[in-house]
Amino acid sequence: MQRRFIDYLIISLKGVAMGAADAVPGVSGGTIAFISGIYEELISTISNINLPLFKTLFQKGIVQFWKDLNGNFLVALLTGIVVSFVSFMKLAKYLLEHHPILIWSFFFGLIIASIYFVGKQITKWNIATIIALGIGAILAYFISTLPSMENSDNEYFLFIAGAIAICAMILPGISGSFILIILGSYKTLSDAIHDVDIKKIILFITGAIIGLLSFSHVLKWLFKHYHNITLALLTGFIFGSLNKVWPWKETLSWYTNSKGAELPLIQQSISPLNFNGDNHLIPSIVLMILGFLTILTLEKIGSKKQ
């Protein structure tokens, strides 16, 4: 499709939103991509990166290669994602440490809206789609209850973590950052970005690229052959992830990391009325509404022809 500069600027802004979401453990950039109308194009573009594509480079030249790659789309989107993820990761860490209820409230509203907007794209409901919805919800809820592993300082494990986490990052409802926490690699990656540890960053990126190229083929095939069932499964993923982003938590057990700091190990969702401390109820409700309106805005933008 023919796109103008303003179209690519909007794609970059969608990338910024995806990167910011992926920086928060519990929120998926895939959800943002889906709502903003670029998800299937993204999956199709990634899955088309293969050996025949590189043969095109040598046989037909860089212009045809770039066109087949959908290169302008990828560059615009990745620029927004990378810039946002690297810059927002520090802010997200600060907000999660000092204002957890408020930031989770915003993303809770965001995900509530996502369930509706993703689910409404299912054109036909039947037993298969309902079962897929249930499986997705149960699976995502189970993942959200998994305890965090102690931080792993093994730099080569970042390669494996990157390959696994990237699959979650492109799935609506499942957070890549949360997967990194479960694997004990979130802090290792965060420190590597902060310290500009090139070796660790390259290991993570390499694993992520391999995982992304492999998993995108699976998603493209599912969308092609089981479109409604796949949408139902993804809607279930988003619904099941609500437990993770519920703002009010009670910590049941703690663990001590390698630096002697105590961190939550197992948490459960509780009523804001039973929360021990300031529940920030009014500002939390306002932020939930703001999160909902954010998705409403992105969906309206995504519905426009790019």
Mean pLDDT: 81
N-to-C SSE string, H for helix and E for strand: HHHHHHHHHHHHHHEEH
Total DSSP E strands: 2
List the domain count as a whole number: 1
Choose one word for the global shape. Answer: globular
Instruction: Kindly state the percentage of residues in helix.
Output: over 70%
Strand percentage lies at 5-15%
Q: Whole-number radius of gyration?
A: 19 Å
Low-confidence stretches: none
Spatial order of the strands forming the largest sheet: 1-2
Structural class comes to mainly alpha
Number of helices: 15
Distance between the termini: 8 Å
Tell me the major beta sheet. Answer: 2 strands, antiparallel
Write a structural description.
The chain is mainly alpha-helical. The chain has one domain (5-303). Helix content is 71%, strand content 5%. It contains 15 helices and two strands. The chain has helices at residues 5-22, 29-35, 39-47, 51-60, 62-69, 71-98, 100-119, 127-145, 157-169, 176-182, 186-195, 198-225, 227-240, 242-245, 281-303; strands at residues 249-256, 262-269. Strands 1-2 form a two-stranded antiparallel ribbon. A hairpin with a 5-residue loop joins strand 1 and strand 2 (262-269). Helix 1 runs antiparallel to helix 2 (29-35), helix 2 crosses helix 7 and helix 9 (157-169) packs parallel to helix 12 (198-225). The termini are close together.
